[in-house]
Amino acid sequence: MEIPYTVTARPDTGLWNAKVGIWLFLASEVMLFGGLFSAYIFLRLDAEPGFWPHGLLNVPVGTMNTAILIASSVTVVLAWASLKMRRFNAYWWYMLATISCGVIFLFVKLYFEWPQKFDHFGAYIKTSALEKYEPYLGNKHLLSEGLPPRVEITGHLHNHEALHDPNIKEYEVGLDPIYTDPTNPKMDRPHFLYVPPTDKILKIEKADVERATMFVPSHSTYFATYFTITGLHGLHVLGGVIVFTYLWLPVGSKLYRQNPEHLANRVEVAGLFWHFVDLVWIFVFPLFYLL
Amino acid sequence: MNNPPTTEPVEHETEHYAPQAHDVSKHVRGYLLVGATLLVFTALTVFLSYLDLGSEKWNVAVAMVVATFKAGLVAYIFMHLSAEKKLIYRILIFTAIFVFGLFWLTYLAWYDPVHH
Predict the structure, then answer these.
(1) B contact test, residue of A6, A23, A267 with most B CBs within 10 A
(2) Total domain count, chain B
(3) Is A27's CB within 8 Å of B94's CB?
(4) ipTM of the prediction greater than 0.95, yes or no
């Protein structure tokens, strides 16, 4: 069956059908991500002082991934423009570049960023025990500066079995640099660059700990929203990569020979989706990595 | 890696060839320029987040202004909203209203008519 209005405008809408379809879909996507961002605002504004962490994500890697997404937005629009100018070769290469960017983005997320988080440990200290760990937390200094207190000690967990074994009474944590020098003004707002945990080991008694987990979604509302939003965003990137790959494969050249404008329009709507995914990331990046 | 499949030049163009096709080549420079601008503003966002702009609220506000500008560029240029048909704008106006309502619901959560 011939699909109507793939390249010609439908008289009543003035648009080819897929264009209307993709914008309606993007409208529903705006609501989907809007709901999650709304939840983010709600949880963040209601967080107790010190309970919205800062500087836990790897900023250079996040910046690189942002640049990769922006580059892929440029290449996909150039792929579309190439089709409009009937340069199939250029289209083929721009599409390949776009697909590669999407794959690199996902690779960095799944094989680098997330595993790094799952390997990082944090223990929330009970309010009654904060005084005991003051040499590591530096809360008197923070208070004098008018900054929110530190309520968590993070680093590398040396005795992993402590998470499950009730007979082990303490966590052995290779401290993150911030807890080895907590009154240094440079540590007031934690460094953004990823710095590996130090060799200095602190034994934190379980009796002093409110809750302790690796950096997984249950760690805090911060990581819960982080993994939900970046996870959903990652699924969108994956979806885009699949569609682009389909349009890039011989199916694309076959359609090009039959009706180049039809392929250009398909690339345009897939591109519109891709730009939206980029647009979401433009907000995700500062909200989670930087602020 | 394979070379791109060869395609015969198309002799019979589809009817109703979009008029914009002829000036697409003029836009290519613009797309590259927008891409570069987005990268510069990404660097700016990272740089600004290192500065103390008075309070956390100000840092968030400034970062969101920059992000909104970047998102606007993407929507206006890459997504062709600079020249789109009326129907698309209508869809987007409705979307904007509903999103506004969504965020307003969040705001309502703090509204307390008794202890106000």
Answers:
(1) A23
(2) 1
(3) yes
(4) no
Class of domain A40-118+220-290: mainly alpha
User: Within 13 Å of residue A109, how many CA atoms lie on the same side as its CB?
Assistant: 23
Q: Cβ A41–B103 below 8 Å, yes or no?
A: yes
Q: Please indicate, yes or no, if residue B60 is contained in any of the structural domains.
A: yes
In a domain, B2, yes or no: no
**All structural domains of chain A with their residue ranges:** 40-118+220-290, 121-214
Q: Which pairing describes strands A201-205 and A209-214: parallel, antiparallel, or unpaired?
A: unpaired
Tens digits of residue pLDDT in B23-78: 788 889 999 999 999 999 999 999 998 887 878 889 899 999 999 999 999 999 99
Give the residue on B whose Cα is nearest the Cα of A279: B71
Closest alpha carbon within chain A to B39: A67
Q: Looking at CA atoms only, how far is residue B116 from chain A in angstroms?
A: 18
Say whether residue A92 is in contact with chain B using an 8 A CB cutoff: yes
Full domain range(s) for residue B88: 26-108
| Residue A281 Cα to chain centre, angstroms | 7
The dihedral through the CA atoms of A145, A147, A148, A152 has a sign that is: negative
* Alpha-carbon gap: B47 to the closest alpha carbon of chain A (Å): 10
Would you say residue B56 lies in a domain? yes
Contact A130, A139 (CB under 8 A): yes
